UniProtKB/TrEMBL annotation:
<dbReference type="InterPro" id="IPR036909">
    <property type="entry name" value="Cyt_c-like_dom_sf"/>
</dbReference>
<keyword id="KW-0812">Transmembrane</keyword>
<dbReference type="InterPro" id="IPR036280">
    <property type="entry name" value="Multihaem_cyt_sf"/>
</dbReference>
<dbReference type="GO" id="GO:0020037">
    <property type="term" value="F:heme binding"/>
</dbReference>
<feature type="transmembrane region" description="Helical">
    <location>
        <begin position="58"/>
        <end position="75"/>
    </location>
</feature>
<keyword id="KW-0479">Metal-binding</keyword>
<keyword id="KW-1133">Transmembrane helix</keyword>
<keyword id="KW-0472">Membrane</keyword>
<keyword id="KW-0408">Iron</keyword>
<dbReference type="Pfam" id="PF00034">
    <property type="entry name" value="Cytochrom_C"/>
</dbReference>
<dbReference type="GO" id="GO:0046872">
    <property type="term" value="F:metal ion binding"/>
</dbReference>
<feature type="domain" description="Cytochrome c">
    <location>
        <begin position="85"/>
        <end position="177"/>
    </location>
</feature>
<feature type="transmembrane region" description="Helical">
    <location>
        <begin position="205"/>
        <end position="231"/>
    </location>
</feature>
<dbReference type="InterPro" id="IPR009056">
    <property type="entry name" value="Cyt_c-like_dom"/>
</dbReference>
<dbReference type="GO" id="GO:0009055">
    <property type="term" value="F:electron transfer activity"/>
</dbReference>
<keyword id="KW-0349">Heme</keyword>
<feature type="transmembrane region" description="Helical">
    <location>
        <begin position="262"/>
        <end position="280"/>
    </location>
</feature>
């Protein structure tokens, strides 16, 4: 778009053409007005024009003001929709396509995304998402600056996204998961309910309390011993009859105690109980690998990927929502990110651990990960059944995986452990049509519907 404004002398003002071109290319209205004011001040100071000339320029500025308002209104980007459905759809797209490299409010591999439509406009953001290389090649100053700021890391093209997909994605970026600082201390579960982060008395406090009690008991014993000693000395100085004197001065015969039948029976029973307990513990530990944390061929950190970078477990373990096994990720999944990410941010060159991925891909060899969680063949466990239908979090079985540098088996994963979980876990039925009929059958009971109530304790559910 090109506008020409005639000055009173009849000459074309190239300056105004330039200002309108800036506005049409995306410059802000405020920036154009400020430039014009500076131009007026500078021009009048240099030419020492009369008040009439200044007034004329003021009129010109007023015309420019109203014309620019019209242009801004005409060329304004449509507002990003803030509806719940759009935000929810956008979140799904974000988790699938963007979460590996971006956060909403913090830098990750790429910049923080919230507010991007304000910084460069909705259509500009859409174009960049679809094909960032084309936008950068066009010379866009804003995106070229970002490209340099993030070490020239290219963003994959997403031309398969429809315009509706992009609108939903932008809705989530602008309005999704806004954290309320006053509620930041609360931990929220998958169903939106607050999750307790701990309960009862911490172990450290219990240790201190028990220690204090032991000291108090020892002091009481010492005091009682002193009292007995003082009373004994006092009574020995008194005129006592033969029976009282024998009682006061009686001695404990330890040899007689040790040879007594009662002592032998008690000691024998304690030894048998201790041996039996040790044998049972040994039998129960057969096949139990709790705490097992083997060294892996590549030093992969879940604390970095699942914790700091907040990559969804399902991104690497692709089978967790669709099948029995969660799947150990193949090298091509690693390469989705590490084609571009070659080291920790701020370090030069290729990381030795990431180089191992490149070597495996170049030589067409699998990465031989060491399996950590290994249930016996006689037990059936289905990941998708628990994660999709049961809405069980990964941490329920695997522990705080997002904090582990080296993955280890957190839970016992024994039959008793599973049964306890089935006895205690309440079923999330709200919004889950899978359980509608079971809820109707259970409606007469005052207790919450738990896994044990729908066959969670039946042998054939896991052993068949």
């Amino acid at each position: 778009m090109r506008y020409e404004i005639k000055r009173r002398s009849g000459q074309t003002s190239v300056y105004y053409q330039f200002q309108f071109e800036k506005l049409a290319s995306g410059s802000t209205f405020a920036g154009v007005i400020i430039n014009h004011i500076n131009y007026l001040i500078s021009y009048n100071m240099l030419s020492k024009r009369s008040l009439v000339g200044v007034r004329s320029n003021f009129h010109t500025l007023a015309v420019l003001f109203f014309m620019l308002i019209g242009m801004q209104a005409f060329a304004a980007d449509p507002a990003v929709e803030s509806g719940d459905e759009a935000v929810a759809a956008g979140k799904a797209l974000f988790n699938t396509n963007c979460k590996t490299c971006h956060k909403l409010d913090q830098k990750l591999v790429g910049p923080a995304l919230r507010g991007s439509t304000d910084r460069s406009g909705i259509e500009s953001v859409k174009s960049f998402i679809k094909n960032s290389a084309v936008v950068i090649a066009s010379g866009n100053a804003y995106y070229n600056k970002l490209f340099k700021e993030f070490n020239g890391t290219p963003m994959p093209a997403h031309e398969f996204l429809s315009d509706d997909d992009l609108n939903n994605l932008l809705s989530y970026i602008e309005f999704g998961d806004v954290v309320d600082p006053s509620a930041a201390v609360a931990t929220v579960g998958a169903d939106g309910a607050a999750v307790a982060t701990g309960g009862g008395i911490p172990n450290e406090y219990l240790t201190v309390i028990l220690g204090v009690l032991v000291v108090v008991l020892l002091l009481i014993l010492v005091v009682l011993g002193l009292i007995i000693s003082v009373l004994t000395k006092y009574l020995t100085k008194q005129d006592l009859d033969a029976d009282d004197d024998e009682f006061v001065n009686q001695k404990t015969d330890l040899k007689k105690v040790f040879k007594s039948d009662m002592f032998v029976v008690i000691v024998t029973a304690l030894v048998i109980a201790l041996v039996a307990k040790t044998a049972l513990d040994g039998l129960y530990s057969v096949g139990l690998q709790q705490g097992y944390a083997p060294e892996q061929p590549i030093a992969y950190s879940h604390a970095l990927h699942a914790g700091t970078l907040q990559i969804e477990c399902q991104y690497c373990h692709t089978g967790v929502e669709i099948g029995k096994s969660a799947n150990i990720p193949s090298a091509n999944i690693c390469m989705n990110c590490h084609t571009h990410v070659q080291n920790i941010q701020g370090k030069e060159g290729v990381s030795p651990e990431i180089q191992k991925i490149y070597d495996a891909v170049d030589n067409n060899q699998p990465i031989e990960w060491v399996r950590v969680h290994n249930l016996p063949d006689l037990a059936y466990f289905n990941h998708s059944q628990h994660v999709v239908v049961g809405e069980v979090e990964c941490q329920t079985c695997h522990g705080p995986i997002q904090e582990m540098e080296v993955v280890g088996q957190h839970s016992a994963l024994t039959m008793g452990w599973c049964i306890d979980c089935h006895r205690q876990t309440e079923i999330t039925t709200e919004g889950n049509a899978y359980y509608d009929k079971l809820v109707q059958v259970h409606s007469a009971s005052k207790d919450a519907l738990k896994v044990k109530d729908i066959g969670g304790l039946e042998c054939a559910k896991c052993h068949y």
